[in-house]
Design goal:
This protein is mainly alpha-helical. It has one domain. It has 4 helices and no strands. Helix 1 packs antiparallel against helix 2 and helix 3 runs antiparallel to helix 4. The longest helix is centred in the N-terminal third of the chain and has 33 residues. The two termini are 27 Å apart.
Length: 136
Amino acid sequence: MISPTANSIRVFLHLLAVAIWLGGQIVLAGIVPRLREVAPDALTTVARAFARIAWPAFVVIVFTGAWGLGTTHVADKDTEYMVTLMIKLLLVGGAAIATIIHSVGTSKLAKGLGGALGLLCSLAAAYGGVLLAHAA
């Protein structure tokens, strides 16, 4: 058996947290319209339950991402890598801001736009991570 390393544990935790954060948003995007029809009073309960899991996962994403960046010799990386990294970091920030707007917003516009932008930024940030992981 291959021995676990700190790096493999970090990557595992990062991917697990991304799965929770991003996968949960996708599942909710599919469930909420139907839930709104059959049990609109349950929306707040479901959202709060998800937030109790999702936000700690987001903290793990940021922590393990920073940890991974700390193990990367960015001075040795080319301009394309650095641009991709900066875009990814902006997308992570955008995801957090949009999701906060969705969470605290009271209007349909804030809820809808915040949720949609949060999901899109999260998806794009995840793809940015794939690009960075496969950079030569």
